[in-house]
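#onboarding

Welcome to the new folks! Below is a worked example of what a typical request in this channel looks like: someone posts a single protein sequence, and someone else replies with the predicted structure as tokens. Don't worry about understanding the tokens yet, we'll cover that in week two.

Example request:
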Amino acid sequence: MWSKSLEGLEEMWAQGRIETKRDGIPRLDGEKVCLDESPRKPLQNIWTDIPRIANTSRERLSYPTQKPIALLERIVRSSSNEGDTILDPFCGCGTAIAAAQKLDRRWIGIDITQLAVSLVRYRLRDSFGKDCQFDVIGEPVSLQDATALAADDTHQFELWALGLVEGRPVKPKKGADRGIDGQKNFHDEGRGGKTKKIIFSVKSGHVTVSQVRDLVGVITRERALSELQYTEKFIAFVDVLGWKFHVRGSDTGRGLSLKEFCEITDMLGKPTEREHFKKYGPTTCPQAPWIRKDLDFRITQVSDSVLISAEISPAGLINLVGHCWGACRRLLSKGIMCRGYIKRGPIYHTAEYQIGVGFSEAVEGEKQVSIFRRDADERGTPFIEVDMDVVQYVQRQSDECVKEVFSRCVETDGDLTAIFPFKGLLNFGSDDPEKDLASLNVVRGWIHRMKEHVESHIDPSNESVRQKGEQYVRMLDARLVACDRREKLIKSVMQPFPADQYTPEDYPGLF
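Example response:
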């Protein structure tokens, strides 16, 4: 419009063809164009120029069938005149009524739910203030009316009661409500302050002590949920390898039984272990520093994997590492391989939720384990790798128990460190050589059985799994060689000539 000459604008103004704002200033889009003068096509029955209500729009009321106010304004303006009466027999959240009120139409709105009645009432008040006068017919206006509504439909009674205090229902439809019927958000800290909320529980008739007690429990729970935050913790994610192969074998009756599957998953750990720490405190290095007696120790086990987290403290770390070593060792006794990753990072870990960057990075780290690899491109070796940041944490500790137990649980390969379940197999000794020989034979037999178990659980058609199995077998073979050397040393001690003729260099790699 403003591209016209000054004379043209003055002519349009004189003809009343420029629409103004309330203060008399011409609108930027205020040119009035007659249809016979416009080259454009009249509006058809498909309208695409009105956008949907944005999720962050102040217009949004979260009512399922809410329509944009601009859409209803166009319908009302194009189909009625000022002073006409608009009827909306299914008014819902009142968009048509609000449009009619704005465009100086009379209106009648009808809806069956108390939620709609409350929404329309407060929408009109917020949009037009106290000048908007109207009557509501059909809602309770006395104690007798409220009692009758409660007896007839408790859900509608709840919605009506919430409307009296401007509360919004948590669940507009019938069903479980977790002890909360409605809530109302508010601010009392000025601009930029935290949004707070009031929760409502609606009861009809006599209110019992148990109902009050339940509401207190709900408030406590909701307060805890409102204070959710990530916690920096030590995190371990461990996954059983070859699970699908084992399951297929079980289905055909050729592999592990269902009972054995349950035993294997139990080996990963149970959530009840947290209760043990609550009662007794740290079990590994009990004198090591800790923050909480239960070490904030949590376990979530799902199918063939387990997530473990513990507080950032020497006791928290060494008990997490000890748990992983024990789980790995128990699985090894059944010939089952596993892989995992231990790191530190932010996580929100409860029985219901496992969320956080630390958790995601532990899962991703498990896929990239490369310790004891045989070529530069190998990934996914069957070990629980320990992040360098965690290793350095141990090195900085002054508690000798933590350092010693950690060294007994892990093995290094260059710059990498991992839980090593093969370690400690030969950690025995006494003053009786005969007894040591008997113990050695027991260990040797156990290693042979582990080899047989591992080889029996390898899917020969899967090259990757076969290579991982070969790594376990190679490690067990190295333990058998150590057994042979240990036996040679014990027998030499049993000979009548002095044992000091033999030096440690004669028997390398025994321990």
